[in-house]
Amino acid sequence: xxxxxxxxxxxxxxxxxxxxxxxxxxxxxxxxxxxxxxxxxxxxxxxxxxxxxxxxxxxxxxxxxxxxxxxxxxxxxxxxxxxxxxxxxxxxxxxxxxxxxxxxxxxxxxxxxxxxxxxxxxxxxxxxxxxxxxxxxxxxxxxxxxxxxxxxxxxxxxxxxxxxxxxxxxxxxxxxxxxxxxxxxxxxxxxxxxxxxxxxxxxxxxxxxxxxxxxxxxxxxxxxxxxxxxxxxxxxxxxxxxxxxxxxxxxxxxxxxxxxxxxxxxxxxxxxxxxxxxxxxxxxxxxxxxxxxxxxxxxxxxxxxxxxxxxxxxxxxxxxxxxxxxxxxxxxxxxxxxxxxxxxxxxxxxxxxxxxxxxxxxxxxxxxxxxxxxxxxxxxxxxxxxxxxxxxxxxxxxxxxxxxxxxxxxxxxxxxxxxxxxxxxxxxxxxxxxxxxxxxxxxxxxxxxxxxxxxxxxxxxxxxxxxxxxxxxxxxxxxxxxxxxxxxxxxxxxxxxxxxxxxxxxxxxxxxxxxxxxxxxxxxxxxxxxxxxxxxxxxxxxxxxxxxxxxxxxxxxxxxxxxxxxxxxxxxxxxxxxxxxxxxxxxxxxxxxxxxxxxxxxxxxxxxxxxxxxxxxxxxxxxxxxxxxxxxxxxxxxxxxxxxxxxxxxxxxxxxxxxxxxxxxxxxxxxxxxxxxxxxxxxxxxxxxxxxxxxxxxxxxxxxxxxxxxxxxxxxxxxxxxxxxxxxxxxxxxxxxxxxxxxxxxxxxxxxxxxxxxxxxxxxxxxxxxxxxxxxxxxxxxxxxxxxxxxxxxxxxxxxxxxxxxxxxxxxxxxxxxxxxxxxxxxxxxxxxxxxxxxxxxxxxxxxxxxxxxxxxxxxxxxxxxxxxxxxxxxxxxxxxxxxxxxxxxxxxxxxxxxxxxxxxxxxxxxx
Length: 912
What we know:
It is a single chain. By secondary structure, the protein is mostly beta strands. The protein has 5 domains: about 1-95, Immunoglobulins (Immunoglobulin-like), CATH 2.60.40.10; about 230-350, no CATH class; about 390-500 and about 510-570 and about 855-910, Macroglobulin (MG2) domain (Immunoglobulin-like); about 595-665 and about 830-855, Immunoglobulin-like, CATH 2.60.40; about 720-820, Ferric Hydroxamate Uptake Protein, Chain A, domain 1. The protein is built from 12 helices and 54 strands. The strands form 13 sheets. An 8-stranded mixed β-sheet has the order 23-25-28-27-26-29-30-24, with no helix packed on it. It is globular and about 105 Å long. Keywords: Signal. This is Carboxypeptidase-like regulatory domain-containing protein. It comes from Algoriphagus aquatilis.
């Protein structure tokens, strides 16, 4: 979230010599003096109280221009801008008006409800400290009852939450050692940003504890050196390459290049180091300066150890600053004069009151944190933590009967989001009984962080409490914490679960889902035009991805969810212990994998041998190397059910030698700590024998079905390989003279698979695969003008369907003469000398029948609709749902995350 820090810093140039401010504070109507009124210089520790005659005096070294604030309990606060140009002493008089709208503390507290409490939690996150800030537990708002909230709906622009306070906010910051009075003028929160400003007075906390005082001093120094004010000072002093910061110019994104997560690879590609004198600075003539920024700057806080997900090999904080107008103004001390001139993101946008220092704070100048920085860089726990992943799974309904299909949907959670496309693409799902035995397993692909599958339960499955477990092969490097486990209830036929009704409390940042629908009848079922409108807490449309389940409201009992996505997100806060270390002996799977051991037939063979792996009749194949002990690992195969995999070591004449032994993949041990649902069972009063299975329709004999011809060619469907990363059509290709021009505009190929080596990209010409051949040999026989289209599969997500053949990417070419309806090949695999192994692939399952045949009667079933990959467009989701006749009500369950990462879960019920 970008944070516009509107703190109204209106300070001029530096503190220079001792000066004095004196004056009086009086009541407006009577003119009587107000004793004990507070008068202070905004955003400083410089202040005083009035005496019995309403007089005050403040001494210090002031800038040319300051804001002086006068306040008194029950009266309106007054702010005056004071100029010290060519002056040493200034006289200022205040007249304060009585505030008749003040409410007592008791009256304010009486108005509080759960909605106010939710808004207060949001307020604290934006105003005091982020939830993951270590300072959060050390800063406290002492009088929260004075804060009022209002949702504002402007005529133009999005709605927002606004906060106000009739009295100054009393804050105790034990992290930096200050008590703070904050006179809030404006506070606004939108979904994509926030801002607040007001007048602030800091009072250092008195302490006789030397250790506590030293802690405060160190914390103040640390926060100053990583602050925007210090960065501005460095830019003014022409020291952009200081020991505290390095500043880079973030270049505009290049269409023909994909960003990596490696800092060294990005240097001079997407970012360029800013050298001295490259940032223009100009004096404004009034003691202030203007700093010119061209584009977006990436700032590295070299002295601030921080866990960032932007680079995999950088362990300090990173910020980005951008001036929409191309410049911003500061005083000699680096104070930003107009905060609206600068947009902050990254670490600098995290600054809240917990870390903001008074403007008169002066650093000692000898603060260093190299020791802490080195500790972060060398910590295995921090390096490994960003490589962790965990699955979250849910099912189409809360319980099942023997013989049913349990449709499974889910999402992957990542400690390091930038590593998502380099981590696992295979998920294992186990069904575990009360005896801690795995009685059923399935293997599902992970596609763009999403999981979709199905478990066909045996008709002989014993009713009872089971556990569904989800894990990846890679998970086993990190222990049980990274495995997903949830209760899985199988009921006895004729019974249903019964649970006590529990009132669920709405959570902060609640998403509203508003359903709307219309029904129309057809011969075999009813058609529901369903519309779901998603709104944020400000009633603005919000986009997100979610899993959608519609169940029959009369036949399915809803249970309290024990594995909500919101709860699973707590895993992101569970870091590895500081002493964690691992050899990472369980590799990442990019598809179906085989591991084995090569046994040489004579001692003259080299220690490391190439192993060729072939699926079927050359549907997929690749080559991997053994280690010095003969062990090998091949991953990236992509198929369903079981395939015949041929494996052999091949010499330079392509003759097999030696033998191989295939080893089973390790499975994690079954934990004894399994969750269970709390329920009782009760008989079903009206027996419903219908189960959730795919198919099972009744043919309508009188229905005449029209013949539908397939008009779309295989080439137009990309041979069922999915959407390419980039593509170029005939019109553009005819303008290209050489293939260098084509690929210069399209993309470059790179390997982003963690720990894997790749060969050249594979070429598919008119549906024919040409793997392990230099693409230049094939392209040399063609010219761009002869090509109908060229499509590239270069990222890990789009190329994964090609298996091992597509490791280095895929170039799909369709010539003007090549309109074939399917791939053709005269290649035949000679398996002589190879050992053949049956290897299970991804579990094949019956998809949920969202589009039943229109000529067949749709029977009533518990699950009406299931969509594990639903997403909104401009806050709306639309679907045509085929509803069996006889269904009177539908329960809608949506669960997912918004585009900015907020989890939501909703249960709705509609009557038909």
